[in-house]
Each structure stands twice: as structure tokens, then as C-alpha cells.
Design a protein that fits this description.
Layout: E1 2-6, H1 10-22, E2 26-30, H2 33-41, E3 48-52, H3 57-66, E4 73-77, H4 82-91, E5 95-98, H5 103-115, H6 125-138, E6 144-147, H7 154-163, E7 172-176, H8 182-190, H9 207-210, E8 215-219, H10 226-238, E9 240-241, E10 250-251, E11 255-260, H11 264-270, H12 275-281, E12 284-287, H13 295-312, H14 322-330, H15 336-350, H16 376-392, H17 397-411, H18 416-423, H19 427-439
Helix pairs in contact: 6-7, 13-15, 17-18, 18-19
Keywords: Activator, ATP-binding, Cell projection, Cilium, DNA-binding, Flagellum, Nucleotide-binding, Phosphoprotein, Transcription, Transcription regulation, Two-component regulatory system
Domain Sigma-54 factor interaction: 120-349
Protein name: Two-component flagellar sigma 54 dependent transcriptional regulator, Fis family
Length: 459
């Protein structure tokens, strides 16, 4: 991991530096907030900031937010004054560490940041096949596409590939393409020059340059705007980037790993994803099965999370009872590993007695996880609702509205008045919509049409 120490407590921070380096961290120093920002803009990056509490931490937090730099801050100081610690936390620090530094405390903080729930735990044969393929291609520089439902562990697998590559000692930089607004994503990826746009107060090195020599993870790449995809394609093909507002191309040496929870072949057909970019990224596809298709992994992961959160919360490690195991293995886990982890975190906190029993396997609102799961009608309705919801993802509101109107009209055998009443719109609005669709070449059900034959009128 990369640690940036900010402050002038040289003797104390030197000790912290030594401890950090002994724990595998790469350490950079900055004397004040301004120098820290220059380091971060300059492409060295950081996974954690250790900041002297005597500095203006609130100012640093505001500077980071203004430039969309996301990195946790841990404050440190030689004073044991509780008010200083509270002020640092209120200013935006995640934690406060007193100096001189305790080696075990520094090591624990670094381990928490470096680990960040990224353990690769598996037992099921379906997942073993994916891991075997990942091991085979990890040593190459081939681009990798990791696909799977949300919560299956795509970023965990990406980090695993990086850790087994020749670039393992170089940076692993991740950017979530779905979490950053479209107008900012280009600058985040490629950086910008001072004055390139309103708010560009200084040159900023983007993720491509920050990851130089290492691996860049483009998380949820399917959410990237198609216009930006063309610039990404050039960067991958030619290994050069253009900063926003820049005049010279900048060479980069990185490996690209991308993830998506959508079917990108469908996105290509819809026109929301470039086919040539898909070919460039999808040299190797690691497809992670959903947790419900990896039954042997459920208990393995459950026991792993039970150990993890027992230790984190300083509570005794309890075994999982047979009844609790049955509930865990029969649940569908629509949220996959992420949902299972949260469930086991709750179970560790709620368990009483010598085991983690069924009464500790709860939903977030405190209900037993297995309540109602045995009712076929409820399960069928839940599955149907999930399928309908997934069918809507990736489509525009206009497309969904058009299909709803036409299907309703078809259901009403072409009767405009009945369809308008069901849809809750005026007949005039309905007619305007139908005229719009007809002008676009979409077939409109005529009066008397539909899948269900009309009943003859009584004589």
C-alpha cells in the first residue's frame, strides 16, 4: 500500500515511517497541505494519509473533495488532549493515533486499509475453474474482462490477478466508472492541465498515469459514456493518453482490467458500448458465477466472515449451528458475497450461547432470514420481480415507456380509451405518443387487435 505522511513532526513521524515500511508500505512525505496536494496531483497517489493534527485537517479534506481525490485520513499528534482527537474526527479524519506511535497500532491501521475485505476465499468447483484460469493468465499483460452479478467479488478477483502478475509490486489503481459523473470521469482517467476547465486550479495526474507500470481497474465500465469510450480505446491501443487541455500525448505502461455486471454483448447491440473496445478489453473473460450457483462457497465464506468479524468486534468465535447452515445454504443470496458478508457480520453481533444459531441469521431489519422462504408462491413472485427488474436495467426511460404503452394497448385490443385509463394518461396524450411512434416506423396495434380474441357481441 501507499502511505503519505503529512506534517513536520520529523522525529515522531520518522518512527511511524519505519513501522509502515516494515509492514510493506511505500512511504512519501509532505510538510503541509499544499505539498500533500502537489504529491497527490503529481501521480504518486496514496491509499492512506497520516496527517499531523496540528495541520488544518478540515482544509485538507475540503481540498481533496474539491479535486475529487478520495483517500482516507488518519490524524496523529503528540498530545493526548481528547479535544484534539475529537476535532480531527469532526474535520473528516477516520481515526486518531497518538504519538509516539505504537508499532502494533500502526500495523493494524495499515492492515485494515490494505486488506479492506479483499480475501479470496473459495471451495466450490465452479469458482475453482475461474481461479485456475486467472492464475494461467495473471503473468501476462493481456487485458482482462471480469463479469458477474453485483457483489460476486469482481474487484477481489482483479486484485488477485494483479498480485500474481509481474506488476505486483507496482500500483493497483481502481476507478468506479459508475460512481463519477460523466463530465468528471475524463479528467479522473486522463488528468488535466491547469485552466483546462472551470475549477482546474492546477495540473492533475489522472488514473492512467498514476497506474503507470502497474494495473488499472476500470470498475463497471459498462456505465462509461460512449463518447469517452473512443478516447479510452485509443489509450489502450496506442499506450498514450491526452490530458484534458493538454497539447502533448503522454506515454503510459499499464495493464487494463475491466469489470461489468451487465452483458456487454447486449450493450453493443443497443449502441451503448463500442464493439471494438469490447474486443480490446475482452482478451480473457473471467466470469464469476453468482453465489447461488456456488453452494460449496457459501459455508466456506460464512465461516471466514464469522472469524473475521469475531476478531474485529472482540467477541468469541462461535461455530455455525447445523440449522443456521441449512438457512445459509438454501437462501438465494441476490446480493451475493456482499450480502452474505453483511449477514454474517450481523450474526456475529446477535448470536448468543455457544453457537451462531438460526435466530442470529437475520435480515437488516431484524427478521429471521428463513421466514417465508419456504412458501413457493412468495419465492416465485420474488424471482419474477428480480427478473423484471434486471430486464429494465440498461434501457432508456423512453424505451420502457414505449413498450409499456404498446403492450397496454395490445392488452386492451387496441381500445385507446381503455388503454389511456389503465395508463393514467389522457386520451390526447396517448394519441400523441402513438403518432410519435408511428412516425418512427413502430407498428401500432389497430382497434380490435391483440393476442386474446375478442368475444362476440351478444345478439
Amino acid at each position: 500500500m501507499r502511505l503519505l505522511i503529512v506534517g513536520t513532526l520529523k522525529g515522531q513521524l520518522t518512527a511511524a515511517t519505519k513501522i509502515a515500511m516494515e509492514n510493506g508500505a511505500t512511504v512519501t512525505h509532505a510538510e503541509d497541505n499544499e505539498q500533500a496536494m502537489r504529491v497527490l496531483r503529481g501521480g504518486k497517489g496514496a491509499d492512506l494519509l497520516l496527517v499531523d493534527v496540528a495541520l488544518d485537517i478540515r482544509d485538507l479534506v475540503m481540498r481533496l473533495d474539491a479535486e475529487h481525490i478520495h483517500v482516507p485520513i488518519v490524524a496523529c499528534g503528540i498530545t493526548s488532549d481528547a479535544r484534539a482527537a475529537v476535532a480531527a474526527i469532526h474535520a473528516g479524519a477516520k481515526e486518531y493515533i497518538p504519538l509516539p506511535p505504537d508499532p502494533e497500532l500502526i500495523a493494524a491501521v495499515l492492515a485494515a486499509v490494505a486488506n479492506d475485505s479483499r480475501d479470496l476465499v473459495y471451495r466450490d468447483e465452479a469458482m475453482a475453474k475461474v481461479i485456475k484460469l486467472a492464475q494461467q493468465i495473471a503473468g501476462s499483460d493481456a487485458s482482462v474482462m471480469i463479469t458477474g452479478e453485483s457483489g460476486t467479488g469482481k474487484e477481489v478477483l482483479a486484485r488477485y490477478v494483479h498480485s500474481r502478475s509481474a506488476r505486483a509490486k507496482r500500483p493497483f489503481i481502481s476507478i468506479n466508472c459508475a460512481a463519477i459523473p460523466e463530465h468528471l470521469l475524463e479528467s479522473e482517467l486522463f488528468g488535466h492541465e491547469k485552466g483546462a476547465f472551470t475549477g482546474a486550479i492546477a495540473r492533475r495526474i489522472g488514473k492512467f498515469e498514476e497506474a503507470n507500470g502497474g494495473t488499472l481497474l476500470l470498475d463497471e465500465i459498462s456505465e462509461m459514456d460512449v463518447r469517452l469510450q473512443s478516447k479510452l480505446l485509443r489509450a489502450i491501443q496506442e499506450r498514450v493518453i491526452d490530458r484534458v487541455g493538454g497539447t502533448r500525448p503522454v506515454p503510459v505502461d499499464i495493464r487494463i482490467i475491466a469489470t461489468s455486471n451487465r452483458n456487454l454483448a447486449d450493450a453493443v447491440r443497443e449502441g451503448s458500448f463500442r464493439e471494438d473496445l469490447l474486443f480490446r478489453l475482452n482478451v480473457v473473460n473471467l466470469k464469476i458465477p453468482p453465489l447461488r450457483e456456488r453452494p460449496a462457497d457459501i459455508l466456506e465464506l460464512a465461516q471466514h466472515f464469522a472469524r473475521k468479524y469475531s476478531e474485529a468486534n472482540a467477541v468469541p468465535l462461535r461455530p455455525i449451528s447445523a440449522d443456521a447452515k441449512r438457512i445459509l445454504t438454501t437462501n438465494r443470496w441476490p446480493g451475493n458475497v456482499r450480502e452474505l458478508e453483511n449477514t454474517m457480520h450481523r450474526a456475529v453481533l446477535m448470536a448468543q450461547g455457544d453457537e451462531i444459531g438460526p435466530d442470529a441469521i437475520l435480515t437488516p431489519d431484524g427478521a429471521r432470514l428463513d421466514i417465508g422462504k419456504t412458501q413457493p408462491a412468495v419465492a416465485h413472485a420474488t424471482m419474477a420481480a428480480e427478473q423484471v427488474t434486471r430486464a429494465l436495467v440498461g434501457r432508456t426511460v423512453a424505451d420502457v415507456e414505449r413498450d409499456l404503452i404498446l403492450e397496454t394497448l395490445k392488452h386492451c385490443l387496441g381500445n385507446r380509451t381503455h388503454a389511456a385509463n389503465i395508463l393514467g394518461i389522457s386520451i390526447r396524450t396517448l394519441r400523441n405518443k402513438l403518432n410519435e411512434y408511428a412516425d418512427g416506423g413502430v407498428p401500432i396495434p389497430p382497434p380490435g387487435s391483440g393476442d386474446t380474441p375478442r368475444m362476440p357481441s351478444p345478439v
